[in-house]
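Entry: ER membrane protein complex subunit 2
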Amino acid sequence: MASVSELYDVGWEEMRDKLRKWREDNSRNSEQIVDVGEELISDHASKLGDDVWIIYEQVMIAALDCSRDDLALTCLQELRKQFPDSHRVKRLTGMRLEALERYDEANKHYDAILEDDPTNTAARKRKISILKAQGKNGEAIRELNEYLEQFVGDQEAWHELSELYINEHDYGKAAFCLEELMMTNPHNHLYCEQYAEVKYTQGGLENLELSRKYFSQALRLNNRNMRALFGLYMSASHIAASPKVSAKVKKDNIKYAAWAANQINRAYKVSHKPRPSDTGTHIATVKESANTNCCILGRGRPSTNVGFSIADADM
């Protein structure tokens, strides 16, 4: 089989730079990292200088993602030789044990790190990840709450806690976590979108109105967020179908839903994808879809290169 350098006619410098770019972009494209990194450390390790150690770490983590324990062990052994007492290398050892589902042994490594350094956040997070992997969501939530009492500014931890609460269907607490995230980063459209999804799932007219507002805000922050656009369509449709709202509110929300439907159809046309059948712009279609009581929470994130302006919807 041809090597990466032969397939793409690149030298070791380009391969090194590509790995660096992926690190800087925080890209977890593990299969590509393994393909490039394995050849680089096998054939050109002596040319990499001090960069070789961060590359070993990068390739090892990618190898764990790809179930390449042989490659992960090779990288880990090199790191152990160079940094025998490093907490970072001990954490990598624990991560390999996690990948092998040897959770008790992994916990011993993390406990040893925390005994030397109680403020080591990475080791504490790994222990929480083990609880999650074992399906012990209740314990993971408790540990994560204790962690956040000490490290309240950790956005990654707040987001993980919100996901755990969603898995437990505790949407009120999930919403609180997302509110904390929006306060620290109000311009992140994904936080607004996820908060809107939680409020939509909670149901009730007040939550639906709040959901529509935050889907709208997510679109203002990123007008290519198709998931938020679908959310705006669904929330406005449900509000319009509610018997509790006034004629004006019903009329306004029919307008919002119709606008969102138009934008969805436009986006799918431009991207040459088949139009979804439930996003027609006819008012009767909007009203009919509003009668469907469904949960919007999910994990896939459709995207498109089409931009649109939410200003015309006047929300």
